[in-house]
Amino acid sequence: MRNTFFLEKEVIEQHILEMSQFLKKNSIDAAYISSYDIFMNEYVPMQESLRYYFSGFSGSVAEVLLLANGTCHLFVDGRYHEQADIEVEAEGVVVEKCPYGQSLIDATFEKIEGLGLSSLWLDGDRTPLGHLERFKESLQTVEVGTTDTIRNLISFSSFTKEATLSKIKKLKSSKDKVRSILKEGEALWLNSLDSISWLTNLRGYGLPFQSSFMARCFATRDGIELAIPNHYLVDFEDSFINFHKCNIDSFSKEISSSQNITKLYYDPALINVTDYKNLCSLFGSEVLAPLSGGITHLHALKTEQELEYIDAAFESGDRAILNSLNWLKNSFHKGESVSELDFFHKTSEFYELEGSKGQSFGTIAGFGANSSIIHYSSPSAKKLATDGEIALMDSGGYFEGGFATDTTRTIFLGKGEASDEQKKIYTLVLKGLLNAQNAVFPEGTWGSQIDALARTPILRGGYNYAHGTGHGVGINVHEGGLRFSPTSSIALKEGNLGSIEPGIYIPGFGGVRLENIALVVKHPEFENMLTFKPVVWIGFDHALIEKSMMTEEEITWLNEYEAECEKRGTLFS
């Protein structure tokens, strides 16, 4: 299944030619093209993803360095190595597979240095300020343009989906949130859409896989100035929020400078270059104060009111997932022909039956060898459920409250027994999940330590996985403020919510990933200690479990988890 927005390789090759000619004409060595839209968003509508126009790669994250000679370097991390090989067809595009632990932007800088480049063009509307500062340190000349420059070179679409903004009740008010953050004379500028949604308590579902909405936010203790597209509807009144229907990318020029602002906070990693320059012109650079991470650290800690929505959402998600897996297994055993695409669509139906307002990311539905593609995004109508194979489903949705869910399960499709290798890799992944999920640790423990707990059983089995063990979950399915990876120094705190999702992936054979979302809570017995409380309760496939590989403690953890699943009626059988 292709993306609904698709470009043939000949079109992409023409785009590369047009951009390289622009660079030659202006005596510039290369152009940096990010995956971001003007909101510094993760999930960008494909027609808004400039990187796609020059590579044909549809994954959610990648970077492009396009040279004046027509070579286009596409940088992808371990989640997308296989997918990039499959999707990239245009001549001149070179897939740069970054090893695990190397960031895409670091790999881009390494390539710039290796090629001896001295000048670069970038789109200030879609490049974070922090990237620009690094580019200036490494290059003699950095030309900052805008998206309009590219619009003049290629046929570039825009994403305009209508949305109605709604206010989520039962949450701490926007006024109370703002006044707990800012002092008199201080202001806050937000580009991050999940932070804007959290601060305003608004949801819009105006972008793919997000409950948030297109906006820019300028807040003071007196109120919030919120820029939204002209085609958005607002069906309520809020005396603390002043809505501006306008051209969002120019909103930073339109804020009233009559306010006596002595300090304006912004996140240097998420403000784009254009907005930063406009704010400097309006308020003066001396007033702007970098706030690393913005307010993510605040909404990374879930409140009791938020957890009511979150628990209810995951209960609905659990039912949708279990029903999807049971449908697949039962249809297969009845001898019915079921494709990946059938399974993909049926999963969406079950989510809708549970009241889902949309997906929190594109469902991953892979059979057999396709289950080894970590972010498999093209379920096939031709790939059928086959006896003796495994099926992996990674899915999530939005329900009332607008908080994302995210869960992965892998099951066996077979009328006989699973193979020794299938059982081995499944059990190793299960051991990793159970070891991390049942961890006991003091507040301040780094994410890297939780990653090690999940990864160690897998490493001891002779395997590894090219992604982190977990990420924060909130209004966006990938939320900052929490990260489990070998290099994460983010400290865990009570109230953090995140995924635990170890995996093993064998190209040509198949892959296993098991993912639960868990809340960091006080340990019920040990003083000054924390542990995890799962919010996902779906049983595992015992056809793939080899208990002889598990310790007594791991078996006890499994039994305790599945006893709760049985109470909830969510065992897999």
UniProtKB/TrEMBL annotation:
Any GO molecular function: metal ion binding
Keywords: Hydrolase, Metal-binding, Metalloprotease, Protease
InterPro entries reported for this sequence: Creatin/AminoP/Spt16_N (IPR029149), Creatinase/aminopeptidase-like (IPR036005), Creatinase_N (IPR000587), Pept_M24 (IPR000994), Peptidase_M24_C (IPR032416), Peptidase_M24B_aminopep-P_CS (IPR001131), X-Pro_aminopeptidase_P (IPR050422)
Domain of life: Bacteria
SUPFAM superfamilies xrefs: Creatinase/aminopeptidase, Creatinase/prolidase N-terminal domain
Gene Ontology biological process terms in this record: proteolysis
Domain Peptidase M24: 317-520
Domain Creatinase N-terminal per the UniProt entry, residue ranges: 21-147
One of the record's GO cellular component terms: cytoplasm
PROSITE patterns per UniProt: PROLINE_PEPTIDASE
Domain Peptidase M24 C-terminal: 529-567
Family: Belongs to the peptidase M24B family.
Protein name per its UniProtKB record: Peptidase
Lineage: Bacteria, Pseudomonadati, Bdellovibrionota, Bacteriovoracia, Bacteriovoracales
